[in-house]
From TrEMBL:
Residues 593-612 have a biased composition (Low complexity). Residues 33-134, 139-244, 649-750, 755-861 form the Gnk2-homologous domain. It catalyses: L-seryl-[protein] + ATP = O-phospho-L-seryl-[protein] + ADP + H(+); L-threonyl-[protein] + ATP = O-phospho-L-threonyl-[protein] + ADP + H(+). GO terms for cellular component: membrane. It comes from the Eukaryota. The gene is CRK2. Residues 593-614, 1111-1137 are annotated as: Disordered. This is Cysteine-rich receptor-like protein kinase 2. It is a single-pass membrane protein.
Length: 1137
């Protein structure tokens, strides 16, 4: 770690804050809302007009019961259209978990429509609806067991499972129909069988016993499977080797006491730790940074950047320099130098005569000089550059801003990726990082934009957009303020589905187009659509994209839907209004010879050494900021746990379309598919859009919660909307207004609509004759109209009625759908307010408009912000808390200062860089006293310093001033491969999987360097060739591989294939030997291709060859005995090879 690095306090702060936030907010356990099975009736409903309202009414009655008791039954209607319902949560779920599980159940069960009944089993609750009274049933023909996929052959597990099932059958009927059992496996530490059994509360004890006996008989048939569920008419049972049970609830008083104690201890320890870190940080910066060589230059650089007229933060500059200087590839732009001493900060790149790709593909005249062959080479070069960043650099690097203007072209029109100001890097074993959103409109992956979780698939999406732009000559991005236009991704998808792609090809490509070229272009379009699929997991990696491009005979998978909602239709959250947090630029065709980005940084685990924006890293200000932060946290920890507000899930109005759906078989699956996509988005952002299908049977959906609802309240409100909206079937569209949310579905894209003939106002029943109330209501509504467009489309207001002693007030709320831009939102609210205010002097009114919702009332219907209640912390307690945190922080700072000073003095006495000195001493004391020529030394330094790859050793430094020339490499604890494969003891630790990974890594390193395998062949080759010819290669296998007794034939075949590839590499004729990229394909092909037969290797190797005169000179050539190298840091003794 660098001396003076702020990494320690920053990481410590992050961990502590995360722990505290998790401690404070983790009031919900696991609701286990995963669907186990949904079973629908086989009889169609009798009358849609009557059945659907009855079903919705039943769900609403049960919903009220579930919130208080975790169980509900209801009946609405009579005759064949009646609806009887039952819902119950399992006994280990809290009420909050139960409400969440039920919300999931009631949104899924409508999938059984138009059948007249169905039941759904979730892992945490159950729900059933029929057109008859079924409450006394405990068995039926739909009873079944669902077994898991994994097996446990241990007989002890089966015996323990039977024991757990028997205990559940015995105890549950006498315990309210519920039992949870854990049976430890004898002789196996920390392993148990976990079981849950639950009868529905409407059954009596004997029916419950009978149901559980039937369930146990069916579930035990799943053994030896590790997991199983019994889904019976009157009960549910599940066993597993994984603990899926929630902890049983304790008394509220004891739980509150425990939480208070834990919070107090954790917060005290947290503040103390942060104090220690602050002390270390302050002393570290004060005494070490000032002694650093060049520290004044760094300070001067930061000042110059901050005072620059360009809106360019120092962190971007450092980030780009650090990342681009750590990589080296033919398709990445090369950094020549940088300057920060003048009025502007400059990065000096190599000169690229043709500037950027966008100058050609978006210009009709210049585009003529870029035929398909050249465009294809540019595409391949870009893919190779991205594949290197994602998979072959030391750290995984994500560019975050791949677009045509950032793909530069040299004089030979070869692609080079530029502008690494937004790039982020992290370790190879990290799946993703969470970061603030940054990039260019039109190129951002939907999952990154929605959740801020960054993976390499975000670059894949951006590249897919660029690929489609390259083929069509159309630019994807548009101004945020402009009208909504379909993106190039959606346009390409529709034409691809219709088989009319040629209509949108760049006309410059069709000048010389023949059949084979058109097929290749269509294949590239298909790859672009695979890269821009909505699901990130379905997008291919860049190495897979390269394989698809090069292997033109390989069949491509069919692409799935791209995202039907891109970032141009989404309003950013509150923080996005702050340019320091989120800054997106419109795509432009600016040809930056030196790319000078103005994007702002986001915190991530980047390789950048610069501090995150917004955190002043001077020691004193750092201490003040951390103190303030932890004082606030201490106050928050004293507050009572916030209770759930009102989800406001009362239905205001349902409006159905006027046209019947076109084809039920196609429309219904599309409708529920879109509903499911919207549901997944609602849970994370309170807003969702989706589209499924094409043509008349397509289904496009939008749902949004109002801005004052919490995520939990939003889920509950959305479940109500999703339950109600299907009553519009068989019409092909509809919208439902709930007091807390909105939902709409149509068979066309409506996301930019803000007005329509259905717009209406609904007035209340009570009258307020007080003119002061009317004036207050108008003022509240006008406040909402003025504020909401600039506040993500949401505003709420409270205006006190003048002249009243009881502080009565007028309350108002306005919400635009996030798919609208600011101007459309303002127009919608103005029309809504005009229609709604016509309700005055009535005390309440609502405006239900196409693009927005408004409401005013004399009753406070708004959800409140969290406040300190009278039962929370008192003023004295808050003061004591703050003062105690200050004292603990000061004590921690003193401890940190002492620790740092003590360690610093010790290290200074011992001397710095002890590892380097010890390493040098080891080399000097070694017996390797070779005469190493200067030419070899310089050659190795030049070669290794000019490359950067995860499979090439990294040079840290060199020395030629002493008696020996030294190269200092990174420390590799396992030394070299020969220590393992040529040593029978060590080789046991190297099984085949590890050896195969080593082979792959070596091939990747050689492939990057462009080095072909040389002809250095040992006498082992002769023996291997003979055994290969005789089919007895297995006799030469390393015994430590244990392949003779290996039961997996696939592994043995893989070893033989590797031998075959090895013989292809050492063929006598160089032209027959495969390239390293070809070897990589041979090794990693998912479907093994037939390898060509190898020709004879050279039967004369170097050991039988006479050396020339220069080689006979012992000063020029020396050899060492022994098969294994002993270099701690590889210090080659061989002369020119």
């Amino acid at each position: 770690m660098k001396t003076g690095s702020p990494l320690v306090p920053r990481c410590g702060l992050l961990i502590i804050i995360s722990s505290l936030l998790l401690l404070e907010t983790s009031t919900v356990a696991d609701p286990r809302s995963q669907t186990a099975k949904i079973l629908c009736s086989t009889v169609l409903e009798h009358n849609t007009t009557a059945f659907v309202p009855n079903f919705v009414g039943t769900m609403q009655v049960i919903s009220d019961q579930m919130r208080t008791g975790g169980f509900g039954v209801a009946r609405v209607g009579k005759g064949p259209d009646a609806n009887y319902g039952l819902a119950q949560c399992y006994g280990d779920l809290s009420l909050m978990d139960c409400v969440l599980c039920y919300a999931e159940a009631r949104t899924v069960l409508p999938q059984c429509f138009p059948f007249n009944g169905g039941r759904i089993f979730l892992d945490g609750c159950f729900m059933r609806a029929e057109n008859y009274s079924f409450y006394e049933e405990f068995s039926g023909p739909l009873d079944r067991a669902v077994c898991g996929n994994n097996s446990i052959t241990n007989s002890v597990y089966g015996q323990s499972t039977r024991q757990a099932v028997a205990r559940a059958v015995e105890t549950a009927p006498n315990n309210g129909g519920y039992a949870r059992i854990q049976v430890a496996l004898p002789g196996t530490p920390n392993a148990s069988v976990y079981l849950l059994a639950q009868c529905w509360r409407n059954l009596n004890r004997s029916s419950c016993t009978s149901c559980l006996q039937n369930a146990s008989a069916s579930i035990l048939k799943c053994l030896p499977r590790s997991e199983a569920r019994a889904l019976n008419t009157g009960c549910f049972m599940r066993y597993s080797n994984v603990d899926f049970l929630n902890a049983e609830a304790q008394a509220a008083r004891s739980r509150g006491t425990i939480v208070a104690i834990v919070v107090s201890l954790v917060s005290s320890v947290a503040v103390l730790v942060v104090g220690v870190l602050i002390g270390i940080y302050i002393w570290n910066n004060r005494y070490v940074n000032n002694k650093r060589r060049g520290s004044n230059d760094v300070n001067k650089m930061a000042k110059t950047l901050n005072n620059s007229s360009l809106n360019f933060k120092a962190a971007d500059f450092y980030n780009e320099v650090n990342i681009i200087s750590s990589v080296e590839h033919k398709n990445l732009v090369r950094l020549l130098g940088c300057s920060c001493s003048g009025p502007e900060s400059l990065l000096v790149y190599e000169f690229l005569a043709n500037r950027s790709l966008d100058r050609f593909i978006f210009d009709g005249e210049r585009g003529k000089s870029l035929n398909w062959e050249k465009r294809f080479e540019i595409i391949v070069g870009t893919v190779e550059g991205l594949a290197y960043l994602h998979e072959n650099s030391k750290n995984k690097i994500i560019h975050r801003d791949i677009k045509a203007s950032n793909i530069l072209l040299d004089s030979r029109l070869r692609a080079k990726i530029a502008d690494f100001g937004l790039a982020r890097s992290f370790e190879e074993d990290v799946s993703h990082i969470s970061t603030a959103i940054a990039g260019t409109l039109g190129y951002l992956a939907p999952e990154y934009l929605a959740h801020g979780q960054l993976t390499e698939k975000a670059d894949v999406y951006s590249f897919g957009v660029v690929l489609l732009e390259t083929v069509t000559g159309r630019q994807n991005s548009r101004s945020k303020a402009s009208d909504y236009l379909e993106s190039i991704v959606l346009i390409a998808w529709k034409h691809f589905q219709a088989g009319t792609m040629e209509r949108i090809y760049d006309p410059n490509l069709m000048v010389e187009g023949d059949g084979s070229m058109k097929e290749e272009i269509l294949r590239v379009v298909q790859i672009g659509l695979l890269c821009t699929q909505e699901s990130a997991s379905l997008r291919p990696t860049m190495s897979k994209v390269l394989q698809m491009l090069m292997k033109k005979e390989e069949k491509l998978p069919a692409p799935t839907n791209p995202p039907f909602m891109d970032e141009r239709t989404m309003e950013l959250n509150d923080t996005s209004e702050d340019p320091s947090y989120f800054n997106m630029t419109e795509a432009s065709s600016s040809a930056a010879t030196v790319t000078h980005s103005s994007f702002h940084p986001s915190s991530s685990s980047s390789s950048s050494s610069s501090p995150p924006y917004g955190l002043n890293t001077t020691p004193e200000s750092m201490a003040i900021q951390l103190y303030v932060l932890f004082s606030v946290l201490s106050i928050l920890l004293l507050l009572p746990t916030s209770s759930m507000g009102k989800p406001r899930d009362q239905t205001v109005k349902v409006m159905c379309g006027k046209e019947l759906e076109h084809n039920t078989t196609a429309y219904v699956p599309n409708f529920f598919g879109s509903m499911e996509k919207v549901r997944q988005q609602i849970r994370t952002s309170g807003f969702g859009t989706a589209g499924t299908g094409i043509g008349l049977d397509a289904s496009y959906g939008l749902a949004q919660c109002h801005g004052d609802l919490s995520p939990l309240e939003c889920v509950l409100c959305h479940s109500q909307a999703r339950t109600v909206l299907p009553q519009c079937f068989p019409f092909n569209g509809g919208r439902t207004f709930i007091d807390g949310c909105f939902m709409r579905f149509e068979n066309y894209i409506f996301f930019d609509e803000y007005k329509g003939p259905e717009d209406t106002a609904i007035c209340g029943n009570l009258t307020q004759n007080d003119p002061n109330y009317r004036q207050a209501a108008k003022e509240a509504v006008m406040q909402v109209v003025n504020v909401a467009p600039g506040n993500r489309g949401f505003a709420k207001a409270r205006v006190t009625v003048a002249g009243r002693a009881n502080e009565s007030a007028a309350y108002a709320l306005g919400q635009c759908w996030r798919s609208l831009n600011r101007s459309s939102c303002r127009l919608c609210l103005q029309m809504a307010s005009a229609s709604m205010l016509s309700c005055l002097p009535l005390s309440e009114g609502r405006a239900l408009n196409t693009g927005c919702f408004m409401r005013y009332s004399n009753t406070d219907f708004l959800n409140k912000d969290i406040k300190i209640s009278s039962r929370g912390a008192t003023r004295t307690e808050l003061i004591v808390s703050v003062l105690s945190s200050v004292v603990v922080l000061i004590i921690g700072g003193a401890i940190g200062a002492y620790i740092w000073k003590h360690r610093y003095i010790q290290n200074k006495r011992k001397g710095g860089s002890t590892d380097v000195k010890k390493l040098a001493k080891t080399l000097q004391d070694s017996n390797l006293n070779f005469k190493h020529r200067a030419a070899d030394f310089y050659n190795e330094v030049n070669m290794i310093s000019s490359v950067e790859h995860k499979n090439l050793v990294r040079l840290l430094g060199c020395s030629c001033s002493g008696p020996e020339s030294l190269l200092v490499y990174e420390f590799l604890p396992n030394k070299s491969l020969d220590r393992f494969i040529f040593d029978t003891k060590n080789s046991k630790a190297l099984d085949w999987d590890k050896r195969f990974n080593i082979i792959i890594g070596t091939v990747e390193g050689l492939q990057y360097n462009g080095i072909q395998v040389s002809g250095n062949i040992e006498s082992l080759v002769t023996a291997m060739w003979r055994h290969f010819q005789a089919g007895t290669v297995e006799r030469l296998f390393d015994p430590n591989l244990n392949l003779q007794n290996h039961y997996n034939k696939k592994v043995k075949d893989e070893v033989l294939r590797v031998v075959h590839i090895g013989l292809l590499c050492i063929q006598e004729i160089p032209s027959l030997r495969p390239t390293m990229s070809k070897i990589m394909r041979m090794l990693t092909m998912e479907e093994e291709e037939l390898l060509p037969p190898p020709t004879k290797p050279p039967f004369m190797d170097e050991m039988t060859m006479e050396l020339d005169d220069s080689c006979k000179d012992s000063r020029y050539y020396s050899n060492t005995e022994g098969p294994s190298s002993t270099a701690t840091v590889s210090h080659s003794a061989f002369y020119p090879r």
